Amino acid sequence: DRLTMSVHCQVENNSFIPVRIEDFSPLANIKLRPPGNLRLVSRAENTYNLTWSLNISSHYLDGVREYQVRYRTTSQSWEEARNFTIVQDQMWAVFESLSPDLKYEAAVRARPSASSNYKGVWSDWSETILWRTHANRKDRS
Predict the structure, then answer these.
(1) pLDDT class for 137, splitting at 50, 70, 90?
(2) 100 — phi, psi (to 5°)?
(3) Are 68 and 85 in contact (CB under 8 A)?
(4) CA separation for the pair 133, 127 (Å, rounded)
(5) Which of 60, 63, 77, 128 sees the fewest Cβ atoms within 10 Å?
(6) Cβ-contact 105, 128 below 8 angstroms
(7) Measuring CA to CA, how many Å separate 83 from each of 61, 91, 119, 121?
(8) H helices then E strands: how many in the chain?
(9) pTM score, whole prediction
C-alpha cells in the first residue's frame, strides 16, 4: 500500500499543513515494539540460554525478522557491551564461556530482516535481564 499523509494544525481560525508526505509506504518504514518476556535458563555449568518473545508483531513478518543481542557485566558500560546479530527469525541466543561468579545483564531488539521485502529500523531495546554466573567449581575444592 502507498499513502499520502498530511498533518493538519488548527491555531485559532487558521488551518495549515506543516507536513505532507506523498507516496508513503508503511511496509518500508517499520519499527517493531521491543521484545519482551526475557528468560534465562542455565543449561550447563557455564552455558546459558536466553529466550524472548514479541508481544505484538504482524503475521506478515513471521520468519523475516532479525534480532540484536547485547550483554555486559554490570561493572561495564553499555558502550563496552558485546553485541551480536541473529539474522534468522529465532527468539533465543546462547551465552557460553562467560566469566564465573559475575553479574551479567542482556537486552534484545528486533527489526525486519535486511534480506526481506519489508524495511525498517531497530526497535528500542528490551528491558534488561540480570543474572549471576555460577562460581567456578575448581575454586570450591
Answers:
(1) low
(2) -70, 150
(3) yes
(4) 19
(5) 77
(6) yes
(7) 23, 16, 21, 17
(8) 0, 11
(9) 0.80
